[in-house]
Amino acid sequence: MTAKRIIWLQIALLLIFVIGCQKVPITGRTQFSLVPESELLQMSFSQYDELIKDSKLSTDQRQVNMVRNVGKRIATSADLFMAENNMTQQRKSYRWDFNLIQEDSTINAFCMPGGKVAFYTGIMPICKDETGVAVVMGHEVAHALANHGGERLSQGLAEQLGGLALQAALQNKSEQTQMLALAAFGVGAQIGILLPYSRLHESEADRIGLILMARAGYDPNAAVTFWQRMADTGGARPPEFLSTHPASDTRIENIKQHLPEAMRYYTK
Ligand SMILES: [Zn+2]
């Protein structure tokens, strides 16, 4: 390779790295995401539509309304959060949707990129009440705001295919890419891939989630009792939510540490 070519190659690599790096709001961590937001949203919106179309939705109007009401309030918090953190482009792309899927055996909930939220009826008894729903909603929306799905998909694709094949993988949107995207967005049981969030992603989502719920008028202290209830449901087969959201021994301690920060945003 000529010297000139090597320089060009270095510039290209540097560009990929610069374009791929962005900062997580609040925590300030630099993250590496190779998948452009437009691609992520396209996948998220079409996969969500398909998932909802193929699912049986709950007809329990009281619970459906609860999920929708909490969702709207958390969405307002998230919108403020994006406005304050210069996330102008991301803010414009959100198309909020809140659905409750009738599946009592599935203890799970997720928010896909761009604000596509689903709760399964199985998680409702552990949420217990509206504030419990707000704990889960805040946490899941926080994963989306911090682009954890995009980061996981980038890592997954890079591991499976290597950097060069990434472009092709996104263009073709093979079955494998689609499955990986769903798992990266926190949808698990339906596709048989459970991809746990890392401890880092979990603590970021806890911290940002507490702020979102506090701002929506829900007491963030409820997160402590929610996670205690979730941990108690363990049993022989841990619920999907615990498989994808590993609860370390220190999780509740970390949440307690972030409560004073969240309480500054809380008004009843
Ligand atoms: Zn999580």
**Main beta-sheet annotation:** 3 strands, mixed
Evaluate the radius of gyration.
19 Å
Please report the distance between the alpha carbons of the first and last residues: 65 Å
Question: How many DSSP helices?
Answer: 13
Net shape: globular
The secondary structure category is mainly alpha
Q: Which percent band covers the strand fraction?
A: 5-15%
Give the helices and strands as they follow along the chain. Answer: HEEHHHEEEHHHHHHHHH
Number of strands: 5
Counted up, domains total 1
DSSP helix fraction: 55-70%
**Integer average pLDDT:** 87
User: Widest sheet: strand order?
Assistant: 3-5-4
Distinct small molecules bound, one entry per kind: zinc ion
- Low-confidence stretches are none
Summarize the helices and strands and which ones pair or pack:
Layout: H1 3-20, E1 21-23, E2 30-32, H2 37-54, H3 61-84, H4 88-93, E3 97-101, E4 109-112, E5 116-120, H5 124-127, H6 130-145, H7 148-161, H8 166-172, H9 175-184, H10 199-215, H11 222-232, H12 240-244, H13 251-263
Parallel strand pairs: 3-5
Antiparallel strand pairs: 1-2, 4-5
Helix pairs in contact: 3-6, 3-10, 6-10, 7-9, 10-13
The protein binds zinc ion (ZN).
